[in-house]
Amino acid sequence: MSGNEQAEQQKAKLDGNVEGEQYSIKIKGVAKRNGLTTFLCGVAALFLAIMLLAYLPNSLYLIGVLALSASIVTMLIGWFKVREPVHSIELTKTHILYHHRHGKWTLEWSNIQRVDVPKVSQGVEQIHLGMVGIKIKQYEPLLKSISPRLATNLLLEQRPLLLQNNQCVGGGCYSNTLIENDTYKTSEGKTIKGIPAMLANRMSKLRAGLGFDIFISVSELDRSSDEFVGLLRECLESVNRPPID
Predict the structure, then answer these.
(1) Mean pLDDT calculated for residue range 8-24
(2) Are residues 113 and 188 in the same domain?
């Protein structure tokens, strides 16, 4: 089944109700795939490496050490995959729900202004970033829905986006743009403090540079960034479409 056919089926599921039950579209990211299999392969490789260390001659001891190291790395990769949420994103009739191992956030469809794939300029070329950008209308509802732990994690994860925007692809030119103020005033004049305020200031910087406030990595999707943007736009259109009498 092609990505477009999958998106059409999922959108139809979101639009319809069966026996009064409201459906949602659940997205399982590629980062979650094969987590248990990878972990079990690492465990098996660990036992094999231990056997090699026990029976190989001293001249081949290094091979056993390398096998042991590879098995541990494989187990760690599998463990981190297993820790990821079963579904990274859930689309309902009213909102987007984003799941992360550090928490979650909720964004109402009515609070979304635009979705697209962010781009950065490199010379005369426009380079697509491997993520989906969402521009929102009001920060406060999103900030209320996000946990401090996830907000802190996003502040760390979004640093490369600031460096991209500052033409710092190599990552060696840190500046005061990475440090956020812990006070933020909303458009309604309300003052927010602490971690939510730092995230709001970070979103303001990213909007000024890249045109979006929230970013979802393609590794958290089950399709390409362009296909996911198309799905979100169709859902937005469906939600905003006036009911037929």
Answers:
(1) 50
(2) yes
Q: What pLDDT shows up at residue 16?
A: 46
Tokens linked to 225:
């960034």
Interhelix angle 61-83/35-55, nearest 10 degrees? 160
Angle CA 24–27–32, to nearest 5: 145
Write out the residue range of the structural domain in which residue 209 sits: 3-29+86-240
Q: Residues 119, 196: one domain?
A: yes
Any idea which residue has 């692809």 for tokens? 169
Counting the structural domains of the chain, the total is: 2
SS3 state at 104: strand
- Of the chain, the percentage scoring pLDDT greater than 70 comes to 75
Taking 70 as the threshold, does the pLDDT of residue 177 lie above it?
no
Residues 107 and 72 in one domain: no
**Residue with token string 């859930």:** 90
Q: Give the angle subtended at the CA of 95 by the CAs of 92 and 96, to the nearest 5°.
A: 85
Cα distance between residue 125 and residue 109, in whole Å = 32
Name the CA radius of gyration of the chain, rounded: 22
Q: What is the pTM of this model?
A: 0.69
The pLDDT value recorded for residue 61 is: 74
